[in-house]
Amino acid sequence: MKKYLVIAVFSIVLVRPVVSQDAQFSQFYAAPLYLASAFTGATEENRITMNYRNQWPALPGVFTTYSFSYDRYFHNFNSGLGFLALYDVAGSGHLSTLNLGLLYSYNIQVNDYLYIRPGLQVKYAQLALDFYRLIFNDQLSPGGNTPPTEQPPFDNIGDIDAETSVLAYTERLWLGVSVDHLLRPKESLYGDETKLPIKVSVFGGAQVVRKGRLLKPIEESLSLAFLYKQQGRFKQLDLGMYWYKNPLVFGFWYRGIPIPMGGKTYNSRDAMIILVGYKTKQLQIGYSYDFTVSRLLMSTGGSHEISFTYEFKTTQYKRRKIHAIPCPEF
What we know:
This protein has helices at 2-15, 32-35, 137-140; strands at residues 46-55, 63-74, 79-90, 95-106, 108-109, 115-128, 156-169, 173-180, 199-210, 220-231, 234-245, 248-255, 259-261, 264-266, 271-279, 283-292, 303-312. With 330 residues, the protein is mostly beta strands. It has a single domain (2-312), classed as monomeric porin ompg (Porin), CATH 2.40.160.40. A 14-stranded antiparallel β-barrel has the order 1-2-3-4-6-7-8-9-10-11-12-15-16-17. Strands 13-14 form a two-stranded antiparallel sheet. The longest helix is centred in the first third of the chain and has 14 residues, at 2-15.
């Protein structure tokens, strides 16, 4: 039944304009440039980030996402520059999305406590589908009476897109907003005027730090954070916490809360997420698993996610005070 369900879903996709939401990461702070361009250069100098997500592996045509980014902070210009590549593929027809973006941010010191970072991203977005991997009703009908499915005129479509964001932070608090798909890229393989909906993300949190004693200088911290996203009719809220005691990080998240809609309650329960990470000054490695808590509980196999971040310096300069953003790295 799972096989035929997937076939039916992709048959519907092919006879109608393609409309989709963006890929997502449970470790969204481990994909900072994907979350918001304002995080570009939010490091001491150079940063390389890689992410991998395997969603619902128990279903045929698994959802898989890959991400790579590099960014650098230029102290003399209070600016960050970066590059982001993201590839997302779903289903037996390999419906895929490719994003290649250039990012910029500028760090503004408002006073001794408050900093603001506006950011901007310009990117190329491509949607593609391997039509010949799909199976349709006319191929399954024993009588051969089902009309054949029309192949789309395009194997892939490309368009230009943009995102902008702003982040405000102090030593222990942060709050930001990102607005993506400002140019509404095309989302139809049939040439229809179907546009990708604008996505708005609001994120923030607080960090509590407990300093180590003189003979045991191990720093310990607890962070509370949230991420709210809205794209078209789709809404999602992630709430969670991180506990860090050098060099280990543990996290727990809940995705989805009851949302009142038209006098009724829409239960948007999705997943419970656990995280374990290893963090040093230069290296962060994280693994998380999503436990599905929706009605798909026994069908999906959850989601696996791995993140890798490496920070390094390539130039020597006078020691500067780094005003780090207090949000977690996972």
